[in-house]
Amino acid sequence: EIVLTQSPATLSLSPGERATLSCRASESVRNYLAWYQQKPGQAPRLLIYDASNRATGIPARFSGSGSGTDFTLSISSLEAEDFAVYYCQQRYKWPPLTFGGGTKVEIK
Amino acid sequence: EVQVLESGGGLGQPGGSLRLSCAASGFTLSNYAMTWVRQPPGKGLEWVSSLSGSSDRTYYADSVKGRFIISRDSSKNTLFLQMNSLRAEDTAIYYCAKSKSPGNTDMIFDYWGQGTLVTVSS
Lengths: 108, 122
Prior knowledge:
The complex is a heterodimer.
Chain A: E1 4-7, E2 10-13, E3 19-25, E4 33-38, E5 45-49, E6 53-54, E7 62-67, E8 70-75, E9 85-90, E10 98-99, E11 103-107
Chain B: E1 3-7, E2 10-12, E3 18-25, E4 32-39, E5 46-51, E6 58-60, E7 68-73, E8 78-83, E9 92-102, E10 109-112, E11 116-120
């Protein structure tokens, strides 16, 4: 099973600041990594797939990078609606499909 | 407009059964791989089961293998999850998720339902 480790667990930032979230895989997942955003009481929302492709309707301030075992989700300038929990997910080797434990981006 | 809507959650007894449904609209469910993902209260996402789009192949997490069955009714454009031998650790919100591309199993989830809460308790 491929384990995804997200860091930090919590990121405290102010609106307008840049957010950098990390996802590390226990073995290579090539570029088969996605990022999801989840707000309280809501379903997850696809942001990025295949490491760097923005999903339909996702603002350009969200970007993804990385390959192999190290991946980054960046939010260039945080807006109020971006404070949420973010999960990474690999689809390279499954079953099982695996998710990271999540990073909470909170208002400082 | 693409939508998926889960139903069937509620209180289940340990050792009992529940059947979840996921009604799809705006797309032909049988053309896409469909997946159930669960989230225990206050915790992260856990993959449960997937059904491929074109081959009817099924996949299960070890934690539910032999207890849960994923299926679909193409005439109703609906996905199901039959949950048997329920355990306390099955307590979670269960989400139905659609794969982004038609075909077998791309496992990129572009549409999610709002979820249905399953609570297993005596």
